[in-house]
Amino acid sequence: MSGTALSSLGDVTAAPLLGSSAFPLMIRPAVGMREPLQWGASHREAIESLVHEYGAVLFRGFSLCGPTDFEAFVDAICPAEWVEYREASTPRSNVGGHVSTSTEYPANLRIYVHNENSHVTSWPLYLFFHCVRPAEEGGYTPLADCQRVWKRLPETLRAQFAEKGWLYRRNFAPGSSFTWQKTFGLTTWEELERYCDENYMTLMQQNGVVSVRYRRWASLPHVRTGEMTWFNHGTFFNPHAQESRLKAMVLAMGEDRRPYNTYYGDGTCVEAETIGVLDEAYTRETVSFPWEAGDVLMLDNMRIAHGRMSYRGQREVLVTMKHKIRCEDVVPCELYRAPR
Fold first, then answer.
1. 207 conformational bin, left if phi > 0, alpha if psi -120 to 50, beta if neither
2. CA atoms of 173 and 259, how far apart (whole Å)
């Protein structure tokens, strides 16, 4: 634990939330804190240092409630630029300012762990969650340390993905819930062609189905620390990682109509056994904890993947993002143009 960063935090207590895991680090006011925004703004550098050391920091007991408090607190502790949600794959609703709902997805289904926008040519370095109302049962936000996931994978598998990367495919069939217009925030075909060209995507249209393919990395050096991290959406979008009740349905759709699919970067299929190895690595490096109303969680998005467990009852968790990282800051993006 960084003694220098902790000693400069002022009148708070800090300790790992879970005794069996080093993260997340929980910070609580030692006494009632009247000015959480002032405290946050005064300790930005220490907070940032701790986020990169632990991967995740949970602020609990700071008397924060709702989108206005959340946005103001995030801006106090992290003055970097706000980051937009790109290439939407799940629905969210803006609730004011730069704050939106977390993924609106059926409560009885889990959301697989993933790093936000890790398959896009820019992504947030910092991701923030705020629990307004915890679920009656479940609804935790599991967190996986992707540096440890990368280290856990067999060396041969790491080398294979380092050479090939991942190939993503998204299909937009007539009547699908997500159109390409909604996904990319565009209105004309010409805009879509330009977007795909600028973001190293291959655009196709056949039998009324619009498809995009794009090759991306499997792992990257962390932009701050230089440590290798398993940073991708490859497992998240692969049908073999779906819960059993969804897997058969998705596989039955066929290659050309599945909303999402992933392959090795050369276009060959990723074996179900390989997805199983990746799933096992994620599972072994994942922790979770029950939310409390008022919690704010700050994640190093290049290191920590997040998801959502199924739940019962009402649940309200908000999200916002900061500090845009561009592909070019880390790796030459043109190396990842999809094969035609």
1. left
2. 8
Per-residue pLDDT of 190-240, as tens digits, reads 999 999 999 999 999 998 899 999 999 999 999 999 999 999 999 999 999
C-alpha separations of 23 from 18, 54, 110 in Å: 7, 6, 22
Looking at this protein, which amino acid is placed at residue 167?
Answer: L
Cβ contact 312:138 at 8 Å: yes
- Per the omega criterion (within 30 degrees of 0), is the bond before 24 cis? yes
pLDDT digits (tens, 9 = 90+) for 129-140: 999 999 999 999
Enumerate the β-bridge partners of residue 202: 213
Instruction: Count Cβ atoms below 10 Å from residue 60 Cβ, excluding itself.
Output: 18
Q: What is the pLDDT of residue 166?
A: 97
pLDDT the model gives residue 5: 65
pTM for the predicted model, two decimal places: 0.94
Q: Write down all domains in the chain, each with its CATH number in brackets.
A: 3-105+121-137+290-302+312-326 (3.60.130.10), 148-282+332-336 (3.60.130.10)
What are the tokens at 68?
A: 């206005």
Give residue-wise pLDDT tens across range 236-246. 999 998 877 77
Asked if residue 166 lies in contact with residue 278, where contact means CB atoms within 8 angstroms, the answer is no
Non-local (6+) Cβ contacts of 6 within 8 A are 14, 46, 50
Distance CA(261)–CA(201), nearest Å, equals 15
pLDDT at 1 over 60: no
Query: For residues 148, 151, 154 and 157, what is the CA-based torsion angle, rounded to 10 degrees?
Result: 90
Q: Strands 137-138 and 219-221, how do they pair?
A: unpaired
Task: Give the separation between CA 141 and CA 113, rounded to whole angstroms.
Answer: 9
pLDDT band at 2 (very low <50, low <70, confident <90, very high): low
Distance CA(209)–CA(151), nearest Å, equals 39
Rounded to the nearest 5 degrees, what angle is found at the Cα of 277, between the Cα atoms of 287 and 139?
A: 30
